[in-house]
Structure formats: C-alpha cells, structure tokens
Amino acid sequence: xxxxNLTEEEIQxxxxxxxxxxxxxxxxxxxxxxxKEEEDEDEDDDEEEEEKEAEQGxxxxxxxxxxxxxxxxxxxxARAQPDNEEEEEEGVEQQQQQQQQQxxxxxxxxxxxxxxxxxxxxxxxxxxxVTKEQEEASIRAWQASRELFFETKLFSLAKQRVTADxxxxxxxxxxxxxxxxxxxxxxRSFPIRSIxxxxxxxxxxxxxxxxxxxxxxxxxxxxxxxxxxxxLRGQRGRH
Amino acid sequence: xxxxxxxxxTEKLFVLDYSRQDAKDPEISLYGRIAFSSVHQPxxxxxxxxxxxxxxxxxxxx
Lengths: 239, 62
Hints:
The structure holds two protein chains of two kinds. By secondary structure, chain A is an alpha+beta fold. Chain A has helices at 8-38, 44-66, 70-114, 123-145, 192-196, 208-238; strands at 150-152, 155-156, 161-162, 167-172, 175-180, 186-191. Chain A has two domains: 2-106, no CATH class; 130-196, no CATH class. By secondary structure, chain B is an alpha+beta fold. Chain B has one domain. Chain B contains one helix and three strands, in the order E-E-E-H.
C-alpha cells in the first residue's frame, strides 16, 4: 500500500501523461485504420503483432516516464489490462462507426442511383393504352351484364322533365343501385340497411286492418267466453 | 323508405330518400328522394316489392 502513496505532483504528472497517451493512441488508431481497410484478412496477424509491439513500446515509454520508480511501475502494471480492454472497445466502436458511415454512403449512392431512374420512351403512352384497354374491357363486361338490370329513365320533380339518359337499376338483397348506361358507374346506391333504417322513415302506423279488427276481435272473444260458459252449465245440468 | 299508395289504389310508389351528413353539421339531412312507380316502372316495382317482402319474411323467421 505504501507504493501507491503518491504525491500530488506525481499524480498530476501521471494524469498529464495519461492525456498524452490518449492523444497518442488516437493518432495511432487514425493511422492504423486506413491501413486495415486496405489490407487483407491474411495480414490481420501482422497487425496484431504490430499492435503488440506498439503496446510494448508504450510500456517502455510508460516505464521511461515513470523514471523507473517502483510505485509508478506498479501503477502502470495495474492499469495495463483495463487500458487494453478500453483500446479494444474503442477500436470496435470506431470500426462500427466507419462501417455505418460506409453503409450510409453506399445507401446514399444507391438512392441517388434509384431516384433519377430514366423512364423508358413511350412509357406514358403505353400506360395510357393499358388503362384504356382496361376501361374498354370493363365497359364491355358491363354492357354484356346490363341486360340483367332494369332499364329506366328518371323523372325529375324539380325540373318536371324526364332525363334523356337511360339508367339501369340493380336490385338485390344487398340494396338498390342506379347505374349509368355507358360505363356502369354507380350514380346512387341504397344499401338495404339504409333502406330499412332510413332516418326519415316515420314510425310504422298501426295496421289499418288490425285496427279495424280490434273491436270485432274483442266482441268475438267475449261471445266465445259466454258460449263456453253456457255450454259448461248445460253439461253440468245434464249430469 | 316509404311505401305510398294513391287514394284510388291504382298507383303505388316505393320512395327512397338519400341523406347527406356533412363534417360541419353532424345531423343527417335529407338530400334527395327517388321513387319507383308501379305504373311507370312495373318491373322495378315488382322486383323491389319481392325483395323487400322476402327480406321482411327472413327477418321475421329469425
């Protein structure tokens, strides 16, 4: 424990030296990384050897800076392993950052290549032709199937006029649709639920037939009851 | 939907209302009305009647 008892000056000197080493390591990494990119995987072993040599050199430097003091040598020995780990971590982080930067560059280049894709000549006319064909096919299908629907003209109450165009009415359990003659586009659609639950539908009035039958049915019931009671009395009297 | 019969009972109408609901006004308002006459569109009228009766019967059975 006595070896670790350092004076303030010694501690300050060590901290300054640490800073210097850190700067030196950064410079070394900057110099080493471009080499790594260029070199093949086979040369990785050589790099490791070089790194080891550099570390050894640093150890010598540290020893030299320590001035051969026992306490300082102990300090460097204690710090040697964590320094290596930090170096490795920093190296990995730097490599990852470089890879990310490269990926971004590649991505940007790829995007740059994709964005100004030259449209082939006549593409617009081709697309127009395809859409026109599709429209024609749908119209043909509509014209073939429109016989199933009901042909009618619409009379406008406001204008008091019958429309010149013919419309087709499609009625199914799903509702009612009014379609245009030429292309079969839906002019107006009445889903069956909207027909049955129309907000403007007044509450159903009592059925006039039931209403008229009500007094008759009551009197009939009374008559039936009376008749049945008389019949029961007659049967009891006979017995 | 309204089912209207004239006084003489000679003409019947299926009246369908179509509504409109604006984003500003949440209340449903009457937008238009369309009717199918038993005299002028007998096929449409009979088909509509048939469909509606069938649906009503199916609902009653359920």
